Amino acid sequence: MSKKPVIDIRGLTKYYGDVVGIEDLDLKVYPGEIMGFLGPNGAGKTTTIRACLDLIQKSKGEVKIFGLDSHEDSLEIRRRTGYLPGDFGMYNDLKVKTILRYLLSQSGIIDDSRMRSLAKRFELDIDRKYGELSKGNRQKVGMVQAFMADQDLVILDEPTSGLDPLMQKKFYEFLREEKERGKTIFMSSHILAEVEEVCDRVAIIRKGHLQVVEDIHSLKDKMGKKLVVEFENSVDPDIFKIDGVKDVKIEGRWVTMIVTRNLDEVIKKLSKQNVINMSLETFSLDQLFLTYYSRGGQG
Amino acid sequence: MWGRTLLMEFRKSWRGFAIFILVVVIISAGMAQLFPVISEAFEEEMEELEGMEYVHLEVEDEIIHLSWVEVEDAVEYVVIEDRHPYMMMSREVNRTDMNRTTIPHPEDEVRYFAVKYLTNDSAEMPLGMASTVEPTDPMEELMDTAFYRMFTAGRADVTFEEMEGFMSVELYSWWILLVGVYLSYLSVKSITEDYEERRMDVIFSTPIPRKQYILEKFSALALFTLILVSLSGSMLMLSVRAVGEPGGWEFLVSLLISWPMLMVIIAFSMLFAVVTQSSRKAVGGSFAVILIQYALFMAGHMVESLEPVLPFTISYYWDYNSVLLDGVVYPLHLLLLVAVAGVSVFLTVFLFQDSDIPA
User: Does A287 have pLDDT greater than 90?
Assistant: First the structure.
């Protein structure tokens, strides 16, 4: 992409004593895109996000947001960035509207019409006390809070945690609308289907190291398709020694393989055999993710 | 935007603030209402030892001859002695069915005796007191002890006969415990609750500088404390006047000048909160500081060799007695307290500025 990145992370490293939080991480998020940030628990997703917002100090590296230094220009960055933390609390004894107005006022915004319309959209009763809300409704408070100041960049850490599936769908729809409005969204998630549904690109992190950054579709293409064939008789596995075919497994008359390239040639080879049944599956992001990790990041 | 966090602090804590102010006002103003009863009791005791007309004491050749009037229904007399007229540490020295006894008195020590009698139905009744010296005011006796000076901040001229002296001992001497401990708790909680209830991330996702966050929290607590000392002082002043005592301004002023000392407590507590990021540790640390300095302040007045520690306590610089008894305020002391509070706040901001906020 030729556009200047909104988030530009170079060599970001964070150590907690002897423990590596993240190490030498490079990542760019471009304007108007929704970037998914995937990784298992403890991989370093939250550490990366919190270093971007200057909530923790980086050990090494550079983080620029809107071209500004994440530490030196933290205030200006926060003025232009909304954030939904993965684990957050509010003031239990206060009404939601009081809390949200307070947070809004910190950004210098008095008009709460967007806050009200977001609350309405996400079916959140802002006249109730925060402490009286269910987990799902508390998450909605976080969502409204992240988007109410209508900032250019929104960083979301596990945004749909605790939401019911219907509300998740509403939220995905909302994210797509925000993207249409030109907003940049950087979100970490455990829910791969969510990333698949809304993200343009995905970054996968493991044990503090970035494994891959890819467009979701090209990542899927790169991972290939799973071909399962049932033959009338057992076949010679050598016929599948084709460039772009890997992980060939034969169990009796059943053959399973991963095809990343030359599908045409594979079909031609199959046509010379007596095929009874055949299926070609595209990897879901779930499978992709598991496959990726089971191979230690070797796509 | 300046003031929002300060306002939020009041919004979330106003109930606790209000209840605490009410409690402190009731204690302060109520204490003054006790003065007439207490001072009357002390004045009565000043005149003479109780029942001294019924007991006769004579010292001859290091022997004390004690005799008393006979009581018709007495079956036995009990004699107790102490070195002080208030007989708090007394011990029994004799039990007899006669109306006289002798007690050795090898050294020329001051001795106070009280005679009680037992009746047929085993009731114990006081008869009277006598002493080896001319009877003195028990309050004056008490005031001569080092123990008493712990509660008068070292002053020997504090007496319960006057409202100023009474309030000095009964309210001002433990004001730092009454108010300081709770303020310390509030100051710690105002910060550690944001850590522990995971509000920090949300707060600092807004463009509020960390310095401003600390300063606004400090300002909120400082303002609350000012309201607290002003209201308590005013109500105390009115209460003093209500019992017919003149003036009363000195009571208000001496509470108002506790404000800088309480600022130091708030600043210290916030510093502990930022360093430990834990309510339990910060409350423990700041309570320890308050109690240790209080113990040193008291010990410094009781034990002469400990006097040099006094300038290292914050209580030393809140000289309420000089206002109550002499009508003098020492501005340098107050400025020093303000400076210590300022340095603590600066240190808190400095440490908080670049610290990691735990996830």
Answer: no
Report how far Cα B264 is from the mean position of its chain's Cα atoms: 19
Provide the shortest C-alpha distance from residue B15 to chain A (in Å): 11
**Chain A residue nearest residue B5, CA to CA:** A102
Per-residue pLDDT tens for A43-63?
899 999 999 999 999 999 999
Q: In terms of CA atoms, which chain B residue is nearest residue A47?
A: B359
Cβ-nearest to A102 among B8, B356, B357: B8
Interface size between A and B, measured as CB pairs under 8 A: 82
Rounded CA separation A103/B4 (Å): 9
- The distance of A30 to chain B (nearest Cα, Å) reads 21
Q: Does A190 touch chain B (CB under 8 A)?
A: no
Write the single-letter amino acid at A279.
S
> To probe the interface with A, which of B201, B204, B208, B210 has the most A CB atoms within 10 Å?
B201
User: If one looks up domain A225-282 in CATH, what number appears?
Assistant: 3.30.70
Gyration radius from chain A CA atoms: 23
- Listing DSSP states for B119-158 in one string gives ETT--EEEEEEEESS----HHHHHHTSHHHHTTTTT-S--
ipTM of the complex: 0.84
- A1-80+151-215 CATH pick, 3.40.190.10, 3.40.50.300, 3.30.70.2190, 3.40.250.10: 3.40.50.300
Task: Say whether pLDDT at B154 is over 90.
Answer: no
In this predicted model, what pLDDT tens digit does every residue of A203-236 receive, in sequence order?
A: 988 888 988 888 887 777 777 788 999 998 888 8
> What is the CATH number assigned to the segment(s) B55-134?
2.60.40.10
Q: Are strands B63-68 and A254-259 parallel, antiparallel or unpaired?
A: unpaired
- Extended strands (E) in A225-283: 225-231, 245-251, 254-259, 275-282
Phi first, then psi, for residue B72 (nearest 5°) are -60, -50
Q: Please, are residues B253 and B233 in contact by the beta-carbon 8 Å criterion?
A: yes
Burial classification of residue A272, based on how many CB atoms lie within 10 Å of its CB (0-12 exposed, 13-18 middle, 19 or more buried): exposed
What is the secondary structure of A69-106 as a DSSP string?
ETTTTHHHHHHTEEEE-SS----TTSBHHHHHHHHHHH
CB B24 within 8 A of CB B225: no
Domain ranges across chain B: 4-40+145-353, 55-134
